[in-house]
Amino acid sequence: MKIIPNFSIAKMSVAGLLMAFLFSGSIVAQKRSLTLKDAITYALENKSDAKKSRLQIENSQYQIEEVRSRALPQISATGSLMYNPILQLNAIDASAFGGGSGVLLAALGQKWSSTAGLNLTQNIFDQSIFTGLKAAKTTREFYQVNAQLTDEQVIERVANNYYNVYVQRQKLTVVDSNYVNTSKVKNIIKGQYDNGLAKKIDLDRIMVKLYNIDTQRQQLKNAVQLQENTLKFYMGMPIATPIELPVTEFELSPQILGETPDATQRTDYILLKTQEKLLEYQKKAVQAGYYPTLALTAGYNYIGQGPEMPWFKPTADKVYWSDYSSIGLNLHIPIFTGFGTRAKVRQADVDLRKLEEDMKDTKLSLELAYENSRTQIDNSIVTINNQKQNLKLAQEVLDDTKNNYYNGLASLTDLLDGENSLVEAQNNYTSALLDYRLAEIQLIKAKGELKTLIN
């Protein structure tokens, strides 16, 4: 029986581990197919902006509880221990103690005293508490609307960058195709040159163009990577994650252009309306300063006094313990505040009027955005149709020029010009598609339907 040396086993193990590592690495490096819906859904679940808006909603519940606590009883425990090295002497009329006329200096109190007790305060009437509770509930509503607006902003950013990635990739595809075609022409010219049928300058010119295309290709690869990284950032996705975009995501589906939507139903405007409610409550909270407040107070205390520290000392040590309690009502009636409350109310009123102007301007800007996106959509459709015809024509011209060049009926300059025209037409068509997609996003946004992109 042949025995395999240990170092051979080690080699086999290392080889096996290496193959396993390479295999697992290929799995990790596998690209993730990412539709627009996938990208938006991922962003809404992972982007920090969306997460923080949900945390604000959660925090608003705690704000409501904080305001509500002011309407509930406030109970506290107190305790103290005091040592008086020198007792204060009080001047007392001596006749009160049968000592005749004159003044008697007497030390009142003990060297040591300690107290412990419970205190309760219950607001019976405080207008600011009722107003604050309503304001806190409206704050929750504000954060809910703000979260919806944040989601729409996340969707818009992701969609815009998603289409920008596509355009950069399409441009790279065009350059790659141009590089392949130019390489074929270069091989043909080189063959002709080797056989004495072409000039060296023609070969040099086609090589220069090939180098230029290769440089452009490297630049576009870098642009694609940068744009992909930007998209992943707006998605909240790890930058190292490889992705690919399905071509089917960019098939055109013309939008239905109806009447101008009601701008007051847009999230931007609704947020301002909610803010208006908050400012109204803020004004009422200031006006609550005109109202009286009434509170119930109660306390129970236990006090120990003596010449020594009273803790754990019996009466035999001249330490005496006793209890006392009190119950009362505290009424506060504002009479004159130096016109401070009035000034605060007027400031709150100015804030409301400023917000009213913001609402008018926002409504106008939303209507403007819709009309502009409609115009851009119309222009983009015309441009796409024109560029599609131009692309078809540029391809036909290049095919004819190639045929003529190979038959000696056209110059190399004509061939290079034809290729440049085709590349330009392809890039123009791709740019027109991007303009349409970006305008489409703005139109969907103006209609308040960005959430439909994930339906």
Automatic annotation (TrEMBL):
One Pfam match: OEP
Q: Which residues form a coiled coil?
A: 345-404
Gene Ontology CC terms: cell outer membrane; efflux pump complex
User: What GO molecular function annotation could you give as one example from this UniProt entry?
Assistant: efflux transmembrane transporter activity
Q: Which InterPro entries match?
A: OMP_efflux (IPR003423), TolC-like (IPR051906)
* Major location (coarse): membrane
Q: Where in the cell is it found?
A: Cell outer membrane
Looking at the UniProt entry, the stretches that span the membrane are none
- What keywords sit in the KW lines? Cell outer membrane, Coiled coil, Membrane, Transmembrane, Transmembrane beta strand, Transport
Belongs to which family? Belongs to the outer membrane factor (OMF) (TC 1.B.17) family.
- State the name under which the record lists this protein: Transporter
What is the species listed in this Swiss-Prot or TrEMBL entry?
Flavobacterium kingsejongi
Q: What is the lineage of its organism?
A: Bacteria, Pseudomonadati, Bacteroidota, Flavobacteriia, Flavobacteriales
